[in-house]
Amino acid sequence: MHDEQNQGYSRDVSVELRHYMEMGRMDEMGRMDSPVHRLDARAQIVTTFGFILMVMSFSRFEVAALMPMFLYPAILMVMGGISAGYLFRKIAIAAPFALLVGAFNPWLDRHVEGMVGAYPLTGGWLSFISIMLRFFLTVSAAIILVTCTGIHRLCAGGARLGMPRVFVVQLMFLYRYFFVIGDEGVRMMRGVEMRSAGLRAPGFGTYGMLVGQLLLRAMERAQRIYRAMVARGFEGEIHVLRQARWGWRETCFVMGWLTFFLGARYWNVPVLLGNWFAGGAG
Amino acid sequence: MSHHRVEIKDLVFTYPDGTQALKGVSLSVAHGECVAIIGGNGAGKSTLLQHLNGYLMPTSGEVRVGDFALTRETAKAIRRSVGMVFQDPDDQLFMPTVFEDVVFGPLNLGLSPQESEKRAAEALERVGMSHLRERPPYKLSAGEKRAVAIATALAGLPDVLVMDEPSSNLDPRGRRRLIELLKSFEHTRMIATHDLEMVVEICPRVIVLDHGKVVLEGATHEILGDEALMLSHGLEKPHSLKHHHPH
Question: How large is the ipTM?
Fold first, then answer.
């Protein structure tokens, strides 16, 4: 019994460890080599933003017209060597937020827009589905962007696109300190686990103190890292060794996709295809 | 040559919370010299080292590195000539790969990418870690991390190397390699450490800090060999200097 409880607790810690390692994996995947990874980060940033803007600009009841947009994440996922499981796990983390945003629509808007078989489809359900689809599309595009560039190339690309230096450095530190806090957190949990004598979980009071401690420790550590950076001449600018070059591949990538997005935005491709097939059949 | 000297006069440093960590420290380190700074926990070693690249500014007194007296204006120039190796290599290594970490310093100094790469490659070669250049630093062993951290300092071609506990957390083989590496350097070196056996091997001179003051200074064998003196400052006579019975 005692052992079992202990194991229960160890599992919590190892889950945290796994999340933590997963972030490291994201970093590693950013260094992989694939046709997508070889692109200048700027090309990917521009295309991703174009994609997100287009997806967001669809009307709120749009479902069918969104379908062609799935081509973009699907093709990049395959070309970039990202596994579907990895992508879905990452999306699942953010899913509750989107669910929360869309969850009330089916109750608020009961106006019937159409029929699916014998069931009436209300505007609320339609917009709920649309929100979820759009959430899935935009988040997967963003995850693919980060996974295929890695945070450093992404930041360097952002800086060259004119993103303010303050933001670039902030983003890099945010990322770097995430690991720092993760590290401190894992260590503290280990300490708690070792001294909690088989109790399943510490009380709220203990947790409160732990969080405070974690903040203080992480701040101290962040300061030491900053000190080390300053010692090596850091003055707020991140220099990158190999500046990626913009070539015809980047131009083709950006222009090709943006054209596709615009096309998919202004013509309802599934309807056109349907008509075409229907016409062909007739 | 005067420009690789370190000169500290009546250095006082008080932390914002009122703790006086240094109470008038004076010392000087000559060009090419290897000096150990020893003392118990809280003696002021780390605080002292943090003045050597201008991270902390003296509350009063003077710190001179090479031709510059430390002020906010000269801190940048001083950082160029001082290579710092921190106590925890995890604080020092923050880039995604070993090579990018080592090249970080030279790029910040404004060197061209080619020149920076060359320096980084040389620094890694110097510490025998060239084979790890594409690895992420957080996956290295403690010994490898330490060596890479030293390479990051070397890549800036410093005149003075300042190290805080370089042998901590190393296994015996890693420690041995570190000692051989430190012996081979020609930089002016200041090493804060509790590893007194290492001090005996690489530093001819020691400076003993206690309660924020320099209490002893002189030849390593004389000072570390004096058991009563060592004990009175919370230290211990290294085993290698104990009297050996002839067999």
Answer: 0.80
CB spacing of A233 vs B108 below 8 angstroms: yes
Q: Which is it for strands B205-210 and B160-164: parallel, antiparallel or unpaired?
A: unpaired
Chain A nearest-CA residue for B117: A241
Position B160 in a domain: yes
Q: What is the CATH number of the domain that holds B210?
A: 3.40.50.300
CA distance A90 to chain B (A): 21
Q: Is B89 on the interface with A (CB under 8 A)?
A: no
Count of domains forming chain B: 1
**Helices vs strands, H then E, count in chain A:** 10, 2
β-partners of residue B85 are: B163
Identify whether B246 is part of a domain. no
Six-digit token pair at B99?
A: 């090579």
Over the stretch A210-228, which tens digit does the pLDDT of each residue have? 888 888 888 888 888 888 8
What value does the mean pLDDT of chain A take? 79
- Quote the CA–CA distance of A103 and A95 in Å, as a whole number: 12
Tell me if the pTM is above 0.90: no
Q: Is A267 helix (H, G, I), strand (E, B) or coil?
A: coil
B107–chain A Cβ distance below 8 A for any pair: yes
Task: Print the domain residue range for B222.
Answer: 6-241
Asked if B156 has any chain A CB less than 8 Å from its own CB, the reply is yes
Å between B190 CA and nearest CA of chain A? 16
List pLDDT tens digits, range B128-177. Answer: 999 998 888 878 888 999 999 999 999 989 999 999 999 998 999 989 99
Within a 10 A sphere around the Cβ of A173, how many other Cβ atoms? 16
pLDDT band at B246 (very low <50, low <70, confident <90, very high): low
Chain B residue nearest residue A238, CA to CA: B108
In a domain, B61, yes or no: yes
